[in-house]
Amino acid sequence: MTLKAKAAALAAAAGIAMGMPNAALAATASQESFGTLPDGREVTAVTLSNEQGVSATVISLGATLQSLIMPDRNGEKADVQLGYLTLEGYLAKPEYFGATVGRFANRIAKGRFALDGKTYETPVNNGPNSLHGGTTGFDKVLWEVVSVEDGPTAKATLRYVSPDGDQGYPGELTVFAIYSLDEENALTIEYRATTDEPTIVNISNHAYWNLRGEGAGSAMGHVLTIPADHYTPVDETLIPTGEFRPVEGTAFDFREPHAVGERVRDASDQQIVYGRGYDHNFVIAKTVSDEPRLMARVEEPVSGRSFELWSNQPGLQFYSGNFLDGTIAGKSKGIYRQGDTIVLEPQLFPDTPNQPTFGSGRLEPGETYRNVMIYRLSSGQAKAAR
Q: Which residues bind beta-D-galactose per the record (predicted)?
């Protein structure tokens, strides 16, 4: 090796060890077909990859995170997102796997809300309530891939224009979903939306995590921290009662790390009974912030994989995979059962349009809705010596 080559190798190694930007460390983005819809439209898959062995695949149906591959502490890679290998699964039984959910994520009581004195109705698809925007929410539509970029941060931008009256919501809403992956193993999902008339907006991502690897079985050993002093209890239909209840002394206190499975079957807590486990909003703050703040930390002791989740949203919906019933075979042909995943969705509080104490989900013309979610991934591998 020449002296120049040795110097380049040492510089590259230093960049990796110290997390410094390096021209040689360029994340990449590639596109391919993921299949064709029954009406003939093509679904695109975009894969973002970095030099640390992390790759994220996004499909244009539902602006969906279809795969996230990351190494463990021994360098062994696994896909940590539940979902399907082919388009057919997402069409037959989508289950919101990795999908973008909206116009209004989470539940709206009885599918009704009022805006400027007028009552609007959106389809009821979850008991008596509307869930994740209705029967044809953002998870079930084909998004346009606007741009795909390589660079220090690889990026894919997708767009969907939701027409006035879509699922009962007023106003034409233009939405962007921006996925990016950098060399520091930060996977960022950002949603932006604008409207041509007053409407309500709450968009999130419904990634199903199992840091042992999808199909590896239970995720109840994942150790979870949520820096929330309160949560919003629900009624038997999982609509918030309006109360801000302290987590202290309850199964909902994750201010210190706890394994998810430690209290997930605590039938002495009526809230756990209602949700069949956790399916509740945690109060991180009362308002949207300009900058992201820590929402959760997840650690998987066996693999060493972990992540921190940061967002500018006030609420975090934590769902412990309670409704997976053994009828779905995922990417590795393993059966997905209750408790095989956890879902963490930064968003406004559920049913905000009908709960004045929760704030507002209103978006005006000239304003931009924004939800930024940053997943700071870690493999648990020892860092190189400096």
A: 106-107, 206-208, 279
Annotated binding residue 216? no
The percent helix, strand, coil of the chain (3-state, each to 5) is: 10, 40, 45
Question: What's the token pair of residue 5?
Answer: 């080559």
Q: Based on the number of CB atoms within 10 Å of its own CB, is 308 exposed (0-12), middle (13-18) or buried (19 or more)?
A: middle
Q: Quick one: how far is CA 219 from the chain centroid?
A: 16
Q: What CATH number labels 28-378? A: 2.70.98.10
Bridge partners of 378? 306
**107 appears as a binding residue in the annotation:** yes
CA distance 82 to 303: 17
Token pair 């309160």 is at which residue?
230
The residues that are catalytic are 206, 345
What tens digit of pLDDT does each residue of 236-286 get? 999 999 999 999 999 999 999 999 999 999 999 999 999 999 999 999 999
What per-residue confidence (pLDDT) applies to 381?
80
| Neighbouring-strand partners of residue 148 | 156
Is 374:292 a contact under the CB 8 Å cutoff?
yes
279 has binding-site annotation: yes
Q: What is the pLDDT of residues 169-227, one digit of tens each?
A: 999 999 999 999 999 999 999 999 999 999 999 999 999 999 999 999 999 999 999 99
User: How do the domains of the chain map onto residue ranges?
Assistant: 28-378
